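Everyone, describe these C-alpha cells:
***
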Amino acid sequence: MLDERKTAILRAIVHEYIATAQPVGSTHIANAPGVGVSSATVRNEMAVLEQEGYLVQPHTSAGRIPTDKGYRFFVDHMAHPGRLDTSAAQQVGAFFDATHGRLEEMLHQTSNLLSQLTHHASLVVGPPPDRATIRSVQVVSLSARIAVVVAVLSNGTVENQTIELDREITELRASAATAHLQRVLQGRVLEAGDLAPSGDVDVDEVCAAAHRALSASGHREPVFVGGTSVVAQSFEAVETVRSVLHTLEQQYVMVSLVRDVLNRGLSVAIGVEHGIEPLAACSVVVAPVVVEGEHVGTVGVLGPTRMNYPQALATVEVVSDRLGKHLGEGAG
C-alpha cells in the first residue's frame, strides 16, 4: 500500500496524463492539489513509484507516465465513483424517454450514445431472443423449395430465418404452416424441442424446419459496437489502431471479453488484465444490464489505458441502469 504522499503524487500524475497524453514532470506535480512538496521531493517519490512499477519513464529526459499497475491502483483506491454532468445526464434521459421501436435499432443507438458521451468505442450486448416470447410468426414462400420464417418477439426483436425443404412450398402450404405455428408458438419462448403435429405431414415438415431455424437463432446475443471511428484518434501507433479495430469486429471475442470481466467481479479491466493480446493497449469499463434481478445484457466502453476512468464508470453505470429499466418496461 502506498503512503499518503505517494498516493497524492500518483493521483496527480494519472489525472494530468489522462488530460494531456504527455509524460508528466515533477515541477508540474509539485503544484498539483494535495501534493504541496518541492519538485525535488516529487522527483524522489516518482523514482520510488517507478521502482515499484506504478510509473514508467518513456524517455530518459522526459517525465513519467502511469503503468497498468498505476492505473489499477488509481481505479481501486482513488477514483471515487464519478457523476455525469447535468448535460450528459439529460442527454441519457432524453434518449431513453424518446426511444421506441425494434430492439436491435434501440441497442444500436445506445452504443452510439455511449460513444458520443465517452469518446471511446462502445459495446452493447443485448438479451438473446430466447428470453422473449413469440408474438407472431409467419412463413413466406420465396421459391419452389425455399421460404423465410419471420417471428416478432415480445422484446421488439424480429427474427428472419431462411429454410430449405425437399418438397415444393406452395402458398397454401406456407399459409397452413403459418396458421399452425401461430397456434402452437404464440406466447412461447424460442426453444428447441418437439412441435405438436398439425395432422398434415407436408405442413408439419415446413413447421419443423421453421421451428428448428428459430430455435437456433434464439441463443445468439445481439452485439452492437459503436464509435469505431474514434479509435484512430485514441492511439498513436497505426498498428495498434489496426489491431483494435480488427478485434472489435469479432463479436464472439467481444462478448466473451465483457462476460469474463463481469464474471471476475470487475467493472474495469486494464491493459493485459483482460487477457486479449490485441487489446493490450486498451482498458474496458463494463456494467451489467439487469431486469428484475436478472442479468440480461452488458454495456461497456473500450479505450486507451489513459481513459478518464471516473467519467467512463459513471457513464456506463447510468446507461446500463436506464437500459435495464427500458427493457423491463418493454417486457412488462
Observations:
- DSSP finds twelve helices and ten strands in the chain.
- The chain has a mean pLDDT of 89.
- Strands lie at 55-56, 65-66, 121-125, 134-141, 146-153, 158-164, 223-226, 268-270, 282-291, 294-304.
- The radius of gyration is 26 Å.
